[in-house]
Amino acid sequence: xxxxxxxxxxxxxxxxxxxxxxxxxxxxxxxxxxxxxxxxxxxxxxxxxxxxxxxxxxxxxxxxxxxxxxxxxxxxxxxxxxxxxxxxxxxxxxxxxxxxxxxxxxxxxxxxxxxxxxxxxxxxxxxxxxxxxxxxxxxxxxxxxxxxxxxxxxxxxxxxxxxxxxxxxxxxxxxxxxxxxxxxxxxxxxxxxxxxxxxxxxxxxxxxxxxxxxxxxxxxxxxxxxxxxxxxxxxxxxxxxxxxxxxxxxxxxxxxxxxxxxxxxxxxxxxxxxxxxxxxxxxxxxxxxxxxxxxxxxxxxxxxxxxxxxxxxxxxxxxxxxxxxxxxxxxxxxxxxxxxxxxxxxxxxxxxxxxxxxxxxxxxxxxxxxxxxxxxxxxxxxxxxxxxxxxxxxxxxxxxxxxxxxxxxxxxxxxxxxxxxxxxxxxxxxxx
Length: 432
What we know:
Blueprint: H1 12-26, E1 61-65, E2 82-86, E3 100-103, E4 108-116, E5 121-129, E6 132-139, H2 144-150, E7 158-159, E8 165-173, E9 178-182, E10 185-191, H3 209-215, H4 225-232, E11 239-240, H5 248-256, E12 286-289, E13 305-310, E14 318-322, E15 345-348, E16 371-373, E17 377-378, E18 388-396, E19 399-409, E20 428-431
Antiparallel strand pairs: 1-2, 2-10, 3-9, 4-5, 4-8, 5-6, 6-10, 7-8, 10-11, 12-13, 13-14, 14-15, 15-17, 16-18, 18-19, 19-20
């Protein structure tokens, strides 16, 4: 199976849905990357090495999962942050994980905290300078000194639907300072100095402010919301691998830990931290959406998407990232004994080289022909899909190769389908 996200083993769908609603509301108020007082207002140095200290004791870490992990439905599109997994007494059993001490990665300013009572856990947003922001997700506890500095979350915070509290703060952090404990946690980073990531349709990854203001006008009346929202808003266009921002020694140590969640295999891509942006223009590879509405985007509603991408650990492996919203896709198409939730998975297949049209790499599909995929199964040896997947990339409202037609057809292998291949009544359309 694909790596479960930290903290998501029992609650991935409910938690991700709540997080998307929270961040959707937060997006009402962002118009720019707002600077705060202290370290967070200082100009960033040239280059990317702004962190000097490890975020945790790596002797207690089993693996760091690279950017681009898949865990449908909450993470149907490649994830924009890395995952830190602790060592476990029983490998793969998070209930036996050691508790990690989470540390400040350098001299920085804590500019916002979020508390998620349903989890329960914390998110910390840290800025070493004006245009770079690092965040930790799924922090279980905070040390007393930091809690004292933050103060009561009932004062100076704003509560979003779903119960999440967000509070703007200005707290100086020293390199290596203890900031919390976690079993597993995420590390993400935004760099607003860089050009936006080249997604084919960047509107999917931006905030449509007029629509959001119209949808949630009351929240703007809270004076805290417009202050804290720019500090916590997700910005997929500006996400980068946090490891690239460490000085050489800690950066090399973190890179050496890049692997799948259970520590094997080691990451082998170039770069090894991979990327959450896998769109390849005029091909089938990347993220696709079942609606032209730009509100259904990668930041908030991934259950309306599918992704045809490389595995973030071994990029030669190709994966379909599917979920329960794919028309006609139920566990009845999987091996007997598969659970209903197994449709929310990433699926692998044996890649075949061209020029034939079976099991081709997604980036090699550059024409209007139909392609067929068979011997498909849940990634890393899960239940088999007792169907083939037909797909076609064609012209759409966004121009050439901006529409994906896809259908799951119950049959044993692609050669069992009569020629010429055609779509049936179950075909679904997705768009860039």
